[in-house]
Design a protein that fits this description.
Layout lengths: L17 E3 L7 H7 L5 E6 H6 L1 H14 L4 E5 L6 H12 L5 E6 L1 H13 L11 E2 L9 E5 L15 E2 L4 E2 L2 E2 L7 E4 L9 H20 L5 H15 L12 H20 L4 H13 L3 H18 L20 H15 L15 H7 L4 H4 L12 H5 L5
Parallel strand pairs: 1-10, 2-3, 2-4, 4-6, 5-9, 6-10
Antiparallel strand pairs: 7-8
Length: about 400
């Protein structure tokens, strides 16, 4: 807490229950059985379903336990839109289900939460875009992340793209919490490096921007600091061909807390920029924010903002004391992980600048969460030059 900083009233939100520990997913059939569920619907990420020995073991147990009452839908590993959600809801409404399990990355878990909610809320998914438009609680949803990134298992948000308008607006609110989250580092070991890095960088963006944004509070700051500790001291394990399950569990803990931070505090400029980059240019969400994060921090520090330095004490690898030192060492980690420094890897160049400036006009509300004034018309065009060749 800074000297003379005003403490404002705030409300803190969290999901009801989270189980944390390696090996928990291998017990999924028993966990569901212990809760008394009889008709599980599992939405599983296609990549996890095809590449994980844990899933093979888990699936055998589920089939033995639930037999013909088990239903499984595989979810493609891409950013979901409302047409995708509509298709999955229509399929789910034809089934008899008393629990939905989302086993995958943020997209898969977002779909699972929305499907669970829309099984008790009739009509089209588009009817519920926004906050707290759901009239009824959904059926129980269990979220199990296979990447450490979005924090969807912790939050009441689920993001979907409207393909007609290219606008990203989710289904959000009190009935969108997962009933139960399970964090198990073993589930992340089969994830390929590039999406694993993108997810973890996304969590760091959520944590750091939630920590410094104008709407942060004392609870969100506390969680952001712990989240940063977990993430920054474990993320380099993603460079190892054979991952360490304990390090991966630490990443999941950090991502979970980052989801709580973003939900309770807010985001910032890097997150805001990432949405149009994903919708219009198909830049992976985590990487899009990660490319911007450190340069945005330098912008803030240059203009006199120094809250970043409070995170130095959570950095185990080196003794750091200033905001500049923290960002410089984060840059080393980002470089080692292969986080791009510009947008050319995604075929975005200087010739695209005018269009980038145009599509960012919708993001001023997100820009306003930054502690230093940043205008989409005057500041963004100069800022984006740092990333264009």
């Amino acid at each position: 807490m800074f000297k003379n900083e005003k403490i404002l009233p705030f409300t803190f939100l969290s999901n009801p229950k989270t189980t944390i520990g390696n090996g928990q997913v291998r017990k999924l059939s028993s966990i569901l059985d212990n809760y008394g569920y009889k008709f599980p619907l599992i939405l599983v990420d296609e990549g996890f379903a095809s590449g994980s020995d844990i899933w093979d073991e888990c699936l055998n147990d589920l089939k033995n336990k639930f037999n013909s009452s088990l239903n499984i839908i595989q979810i493609p590993g891409k950013e979901p839109n409302y047409n995708d959600l509509r298709k999955h809801v229509e399929s789910a409404r034809k089934l008899k289900s008393d629990v939905v399990i989302g086993l995958g990355g943020g997209s898969c878990m977002d779909i699972a939460k929305a499907v669970g909610a829309l099984l008790t809320n009739p009509g089209d998914p588009m009817d519920y875009r926004g906050f707290d438009l759901l009239k009824n609680p959904g059926i129980p949803v269990v979220c199990i992340p296979t990447t450490a990134g979005t924090g969807s298992e912790a939050s009441f948000n689920a993001s979907f793209v409207d393909e007609e308008t290219n606008f990203k607006m989710g289904i959000n609110g009190k009935y969108m919490f997962a009933s139960h989250a399970i964090l198990d580092g073993e589930t992340t070991l089969s994830c390929p490096k590039f999406p694993a890095v993108g997810a973890a960088i996304d969590a760091i963006v959520h944590t750091v921007e939630g920590y410094i944004c104008n709407t942060s509070n004392e609870f969100s700051d506390f969680l952001a600091e712990k989240s940063f500790y977990y993430l920054i001291n474990s993320i380099s394990d993603l460079n190892n061909e054979v991952g360490n399950a304990e390090k991966r569990l630490s990443l999941l803990k950090g991502a979970y807390l980052a989801g709580l931070v973003q939900m309770n505090a807010g985001g910032g400029i890097s997150s805001a920029i990432s949405y149009p980059l994903g919708v219009y240019y198909k830049v992976p969400h985590g990487m899009a924010g990660g490319i911007m994060l450190l340069e945005m921090a330098r912008y803030n520090i240059k203009n006199g903002y120094n809250k970043y330095k409070n995170l130095c004490k959570y950095y185990e690898l080196k003794s750091l004391s200033t905001s500049d030192e923290l960002i410089s060492n984060m840059q080393i980690i980002f470089d080692e992980l292969g986080v791009p420094k510009n947008l050319s890897q995604f075929n975005i160049y200087q010739s695209d600048k005018s269009e980038l400036v145009r599509v960012m006009q919708t993001q001023q509300k997100g820009f306003d969460q930054n502690p230093i004034s940043f205008n989409c018309e005057t500041d963004f065009p100069k800022f984006i030059d740092n990333f264009l060749e």
